[in-house]
Structures
1.
Amino acid sequence: MNSPEARLVAPAAKPRVIPRAEHTISRSHVSPNALRVLYRLKDGGFQAFLVGGCVRDLLLGMEPKDFDVATDALPDQVKRLFRNCRLVGRRFRLAHVFFGQEIIEVATFRAATAPSQGEEPLADADPEDGEAPELDEPELGSEAAGAAARGGPEAAGDTAELADEAGAGVGEAARDRAFARADRPPPGDDSERMFDHTGRILRDNVYGTIDEDVWRRDFTANSLYYNIADFSIWDYVGGVEDITARRLRLIGDPETRFREDPVRMLRAARFEAKLGFGIDPQTAEPIGRLRELLGGVPPARLFDEMLKLFLTGHGARSLEVLRRRGLLGQLLPNVDAYLAAHSGGLVERLLMKGLENTDARAVAGRPVTPTFLLALLLYGPIAQIIESMPPERWHEIAAIAEACERAVRQAQAHLTIPRRFSLGVTEMFSLQPRLEHPSGRRALRLLTHPRFRAAYDLLLLRSELGLASPEMAQWWTRVQEVPQEEQGSMADALVQKAGPRPERPRTGRRRRRGRRGPRAS
Ligand code: ATP
Ligand code: MG
């Protein structure tokens, strides 16, 4: 069927059924809510399978991030079975079944075959013409930011896959409006697939059988179905074998599949980083040629993908894979250019250390934030802009804020950064000189600043790398630990020790960085 030597992976007409006795997936590792959904569908007379990443992760002995269900029940039939259910998705309806914090996503099997050679592509719609459609989906561009950060289910693939269909959260971007418009089905027409001139899927709207559903999945490792009827695994594509060999292979012709949805290139990088799988050479080959197609993906969706790459426990490895595969430039061109020009330098070390800390937090289930992540990623570009200003401006809060805004603007070449996160970055950087040169008791007010914690964490990181004074970082650590009465005397002692403040507060950071040179490698 699908030996590794086979040129392309084509799903078999019938699955290889692996009985319960021959695999390791146990119901005790499946979310009880997912089991409830599966059993209710089955008892309603429908087929019900776990599918995708959760089956892959269970086979790998990992804890799945979310549980996705595939069924032959139509969305309305699913809705009738569950009170706690909401249909989402404009073009392709999905059911979300809610259990408190947990959402189980139930997708009806989709018939999606690769476009045939002669299929006439659609021209892009005129970006000046038309407006965004009304949305009936959660705002993925912004909500999924938090969700991805929490590893929450809104960030799950089938929904995220539809982010561009909704054109959500990107009202200001003309090209997204164009996509959204091109994507809007004519009334009464809900049964077509549409592609743009690059081969990108604009609409994918046909319900089908499980044999057809497998075609629209991306990697063989993500295309296994766990059948609740008899606890067997259905494998159409040699996915079990590929998981054992820790290999990522796209189903179908890789170039076509990447053209249909260029985000699959980022997904490949994410799974390489997350699972430590190798990308099969045939799957990897077109990435170098096609990566620029990511420029045509709605910016809100790229932002969501970026969060999944960096905030779900494998950010340091994601950075390495993205750079090696030439994909970082498609997400954050200024970060890529900075790192390329200062390879192995202090900023790269700060970034890697920061990502490792973030990974450890994510793995431990502690909160991680897009703001802190962006501050890490943009550290080099921000420092570079500040250092391009006259040295007498390096300590000015206004100059720091301006540099942050310029770096964020550059970073938005391909993706959108929601304003609340970019404002947070500016605040974090603007707080650095105030933390490095606390002005007596007034400085204690910073402890209640909403961005204090993030700014303090950045100060710690900078001090670890010699980019800020370790004594000041320790002072802020201590002042948070002592009772309130002692905080005042700590602040007084600091003023006495420092003597009168210089007329202009120096930014030790910038001057020191300037002297040492940020390019130290
Ligand atoms: P994880 O949840 O660990 O990030 P996952 O494989 O479950 O990984 P999701 O984004 O949750 O990824 O998507 C669920 C499933 O939906 C995938 O396993 C895959 O079968 C399918 N899928 C998601 N996105 C795409 C895509 N862009 N193209 C094709 N199939 C996709
Ligand atoms: Mg998933």
2.
Amino acid sequence: MSATKIIFLNDFSLVLSFLIRKILTLQPEIEYKFMVQQDEIFKKLISHCKEYGFVFPSSEIYDGLAAVYDYGQNGVELKNNIKRYWWESMTLLNENIVGIDSAIFMHPTIWKASGHVDAFNDPLIDNKDSKKRYRADVLIEEQLAKIEEKINKEIEKASLRFGAAFDVQQFRTTNPRVLENQAKYDELHARFVKALNDSDLEALRQIILDSKIVCPVSGTANWTEVRQFNLMFSTEMGSTLEGAMKVYLRPETAQGIFVNFLNVYKSGRMKIPFGIAQIGKAFRNEIVARQFIFRMREFEQMEMQFFVRPGEELQWFSHWKALRMKWHKALGLGDSKYRFHDHDKLAHYANAATDIEFEMPFGFKEVEGIHSRTDFDLGSHEQYSGKKIQYFDPELNQSYVPYVIETSIGVDRMFLSVLAGSYHEEVLEGGDSRVVLQLPPALAPVKLAVLPLVKKDGLPEKAREIVDTLRFGFNCRYDEKDSIGKRYRRQDAIGTPFCVTVDHETLNDDCVTIRYRDTMQQERVPVSQLETIISDKVSIKNLLKTII
Ligand code: GAP
């Protein structure tokens, strides 16, 4: 067996990596593995987003506004494509799902009924030395993740050492270091779940002290008590003369669906089971607002509430769990990047809940939640509003408050997962390098770039003619500046799946050279075939066909 050496590249330089590869070919008996430190990749992804017009910090010329971001010219296209993929998968593929668009401002009693006024809290803790504020539950979760990482590193090292003969299960149950860390993990996890379930703030603090968790800024464990902090933003509606009313910026879009249940059921003559989908902004005064667009104070949700007969909810929960995972995996970013994570602590309204997590550069993180919300929301609105919110089931000849399965996905987290899964730095033959976004073609902001080889001899006119014909089917871009190589790199960096080059021959044979983003292969095709070749690959409809 050949020896293996892992080389961590702290500041990933493509040139350096290329040179190292060259030198290493002198020692063929050693198998080298290059591992780019994920936090470096994440930093690069963030600056790539800014440099190529995907995401900008909000109010940047005024030094920004924490945890608020703007989407640029390419970001908005990618975001709209994600929303379209979701919206059409809900409303076109399911004849019993319809959409709505409810207002952000709603009657304040809605948030009392939903439980948000009393229970939409985060447990906060301050470090007395740095004066920094943290979420107590997040500090403990990070501690758990560190232990898990230690276990995974042991397994990774052993797997490299033993190669094909390695048995993970046996290693997990026999290696003393893994067993010791697993026991630590299990004990901490059990205490954490109990503290959360009991809403025991003092127990959370004690876990932080016992685990010797320190503030990353001051390095000390000089912590305050843990306090609850409500995450809703509020404002005043109406002038003070009239007696202004305190209203909230909605922290989820779901309540807009619940309070419109009767309207849609009656005006749409809906029959259970049926769903209502909505895409819209939500606002939360997040305290730990780090990790770029992963946790924002203003973000967007795509939520669907599926109304079912009481007693059938867990069956529908499994159905939606499977369907939503299929929707994610159809994008082709790699099945191993997704996993389910069942909730340790169920929210006050749920009798089952799971997250779909994606492997971000900072670990597996929640992108979507699937919750069996029972009849909590409709029942509570019935109680607070005094209106009967029930469904008459003609088959059972009986009225009841329907049960609800919710699928709730953040547009921005989905955006981040797609970008993180698509971002690649490649060293090419000959020492050249490129950054390429291997975006699913149906989501790419620009589908086709048309490039005249030179800015004369009628080539720009021919290129523009091609753009003018194809622009009705998909987003096309014309680019004549710089060398062809530089123009290819610019399109790779924004994930354009196809480039076509118009050259002098095109004027004679009406053919162009099409270049495929991922393989960089080129072929000569008639202009008349471009629409079919490209439409087929970039169509959201074709993507949807793969998930039915
Ligand atoms: N209606 C249920 C609900 O809102 P949630 O788990 O609190 O459930 C659902 O949120 C999804 O919304 C999450 O899976 C995540 O993708 C997104 N989300 C929640 N808070 C967010 C934030 N501060 N920034 C960005 N996305 C967020």
3.
Amino acid sequence: MTTPNKVYLKDYTPPVFCVKKVDLDIRLYEDHAIVDATLTMKRLHEGLLVLFGRKLELQAIELNGKVLSGSDYTLDEEQLIIHHAPDDAIVRTLVKIIPHTNTELEGLYQAGTGMDAMFVTQCEPEGFRKITFYPDRPDVLAEFITRVEADKKYPTLLANGNLIEKGDLGDRHFAIWHDPTLKPSYLFACVIANLDVMQDTYTTCEGREVLLEIYATKQDLDKCHVAMQALKDSMKWDEDNYGCAYDLDRYMIVATGQFNMGAMENKGLNIFNTSCVLATPQTATDESIFRVKLVVAHEYFHNWTGNRVTCRDWFQLCLKEGLTVFREQGFSGDFRSKAVQRIEDVAFLKAHQFTEDAGPLAHPVRPESFVEINNFYTMTIYEKGAEIVRMIANLLGREKYRQGTDEYFRRHDGQAVTIEDFLSALSIGDERVLDFLAWYRQPGTPEVFGGFDINGNQVTINLSQKTRHVAGFDAPTALPIPVDTAIFDGESGELLAQKMLLLNKDADSFVFEDLPLNGVRPVISVLRNFSAPVKLNFEYSNEDLMKLVAFETEGFNRWQAVQTLINRLLLGESDDLSLLTDTLRTVIPTLMQDDPMLAARLFDIPSEQELAMAYEVNYDPSFVKAKRDELKKGIAAALSEVVGGWYQALPIVPYEDTPKARGQRLLRNVLLNLALAADLPQVKSWAYQQYDDASCMSERLGALSAMISFNLEKADVYVADFYDKFRDEELVIDSWFAVQARADVRDVAFIKSLMMRDDYDWNVPNRVRTTLNALAAKPTQLWSEEGLTLYFDALARLDAINPTVASRVLSQLGRWYTLDESRKAIVKEKLIALQGVAKSKNVLEFVNNMLNA
Ligand code: BES
Ligand code: ZN
């Protein structure tokens, strides 16, 4: 059953020709660019010489120095086939492209306009074919020499590798770069711009002195310190933890305001969305600053996991992304409490990846087919992919995991490989690693059910697993599921036993013997630190959960216990709110001192999107929202005598970037919202005061968000003040859009009015996402007739401008089919209409999958 225009993993064949060397000459003019490329190729197998190319105007072509005529090759929309190619083929093409009107932000494109105009590339996954004809697939590795030529109004001319020459041509100039490392075309990059640069150096453990450069506009240059420090920290961390040192003399990062993703790991020349590189305490919240650090680390870590060892084909995307996310989570965890790091990663996984896995866009971590590869940069590939590596790393333990990754780099440096290669290298110390391949092949979130029996001094833990059967895939099989389990004394809270259980059948029992129980019911803690990405249904009583919060020594499961109780309250399985609020009242004061960030996170309530997952049919967004609002109010009321004091105990102090200070700021914002919900006397003035006295953006934006959410009289004044203060800071204005759009009290008409403003630029993905993501996070508004109209109108518009962004926006509607019949009918009608007007493969693939749900 092969559907046309679908690509299948099973159809993989190795490349017919390899490319020894690429000589690229990119010349930029006022309204177009000319790309002159010479590919030195060598035959590896029987077959045709095929070069991919999209939207290229072919102006000349030569083979081994001889000009080709139309009958020597075949050219269509997607590829160029050269007939009768000899085994040694030097192919030269001259093409014209128009970066100036490229709104897809893939290939070479213009970002910004006027004085700020610059030209940057985005090649992953298949953008290089929009620059020149090329065997644009990750398993073709070549040496690149890139000459970039442009008008002198663009003094910054960059490409991968080392600068080997610069030259003056009157009004124009050029630079020649040489990248000695063999790389796939998706890692190619060049930049033509007028940027300032921040420089620093780093000496690797191998003694190499590396020049570090971050390029940004003059106005933004002072916002690069956080990223620069993060880069140095990442370089050190990778040496210490994986034995990986940097391999070129230069590492460059370029910031652009127009970028589809967060950032891109091009060899030696990363290109970053400004939102992921520019940050100061005055212009970015703690979360944004933390994100800058982790994105810098992520892209840097790709130098080994992705660039030096790359993917054989795009089905293996998780090979680099899952592993690199896992590495980056480890790095981030070293800069704050481990518990908070894990809570954040798991909360994100549950809110986004579990939802994806539960809907019509569910797919295995290693997909077996796709129509548009851009649609597969998903939560499943990234986050579930990272969880699989984490399970393996935990199973192996520190030492064997390190042996395994050393072996992986030793075997595969300079190669394009598969998940099987990765698992094989990691399994040298423990063959059980190979069983984890099943996790890469099967979609759907496994559910684990469990309980326990007590018999004298013996406790038996009974576990079973079940994964839903996703249409179009084989029936699910049992997966290896590590379940980290601890047993605590039910009275003293003493830790009696701990073990990593491995459930690798449909059901199994695990016995703990000789426990000093003394007739007291123990407290069992399973899936500690979220040892596997599963939905857990364990027979905890509500009292067990609250004892867990008190006894657990592992912060993640303390948080999880509170979450489980909150879920029970929200789903009507429990109505005893006091159990929760009594616990919070007891634990918060101590935690406020020890780990204020964890204290803040204990107030987490699952998002409406996440709660919607409990429904397979007749999902009613208003009901879910009402339950959630009621719970928030209930918690605030029950804690009303204490929250004011807690808030006051956290006065604003001079800014510091430490885990404790960040935790205090987050907790202060959480408490401000609680105090407003409890309607404490004077509380409004606290909000205004916090804004006025703010030492940093987290405090300021936290206060503004609270003022808007609670409709305070002066909210509008502050909204205007914020805009005035930061009108020249694009990223801050993005938060200005987002903070308003996200507030429940701002309706669809209001969001629409934001989208009609002159400063709402449809060509800038960051700006577009502010309102659409906000709407998607408010299901009662999203799934209304008005909300859907706004959302689908935007989708149709984006489909024509930027298909990658459009299909990501669309993917947030995955679970539409769980709505009640009348709402479902509206969505269906709109999906069909979109199917009729959409042009991009990206949007069409998702619409089709969604309509088949
Ligand atoms: N390789 C990706 C960037 C990318 C993805 C480019 C898809 C083109 C298409 C990069 O390494 C990445 O994963 N970036 C993430 C951030 C990261 C911290 C998870 C992103 O851009 O969101
Ligand atoms: Zn990545």
4.
Amino acid sequence: MPELTDIHYVRNIMEKHGFHVSKSLGQNFLINPTVCPRIAELGNAKPGFGILEIGTGVGVLTKELAKRADKVVAIELDQKLFPILEETLAGFENIKIIHGDAMQYDLKKLIAEEFQGLQVAVCANLPYYITSPMIMRLLEEKLDITSITVMVQKEAAQRICASVGSRESGAVTVAVAYHGEAMKLFDVSRGSFLPAPNVDSCVMQIALYPENPWNVQDEDLFFRMVRSGFSQRRKQLAGVLCNAFAISKSEISEIFETSGIVPSVRIEALTMPELVRLSNAFSQF
Ligand code: SAM
């Protein structure tokens, strides 16, 4: 079977099945032969692991994952890819492809049913239009997974992997740092895809904490505070929170004093422990 990074083969098989790539589904398929083996190896595709993939395309990454892990379950939204996948992934007994929307699918149930006795990792070349919501979904559902290794647009990786307390950080940086440690693994140029997108990409990884280390007393309040702060990131945080939480200036001063943080600070300057202290002072108020 020819390689799925062979551009002529991929074009032929798509033509044979009358398949046309859909821009709106973020279909940019990997054709650089070095990228998928690296994602698979760095993304924990190894014995003892089950891998959840989001978006198979023609199966180029799926195949590399299945060569290394015990089992791969992939969710693909585009039914028109299924006849192609039947051909490209023929002979692999450890792959299951599910037709569905990864944003809606019951992932907790899927993991419990499909990966019994295995550790689970997520690997994907994510469709760009659901990058942040998909990552947030994977984190917020508190799934039993060890790592998330995903290709995203370079700018998204920079934001997600920034240090909390730096100018590059955002609400998504804090949300990711709350659940695990994020790092950029390697850059991938736009020429590595068919068709080539207008932007470069980056493979990044979130290693999830087995136990949450932050001691946040009220998660909802913590994330409400973070979202409000970053919605007006250039303003002084005390003023922003006064309005967002409808509390008085004297009350907010007391909360900042309890947490040992100056009220004139901007949210982007606060580190994770400082954000936690502030939110806990809020929840005790
Ligand atoms: N893994 C393949 C590769 O690297 O070549 C394909 C990656 S392509 C960037 C994204 C894939 O996700 C496409 O196959 C697309 O059809 C699929 N997709 C888009 N939206 C989806 C969704 N909501 N749920 C599941 N799959 C989706």
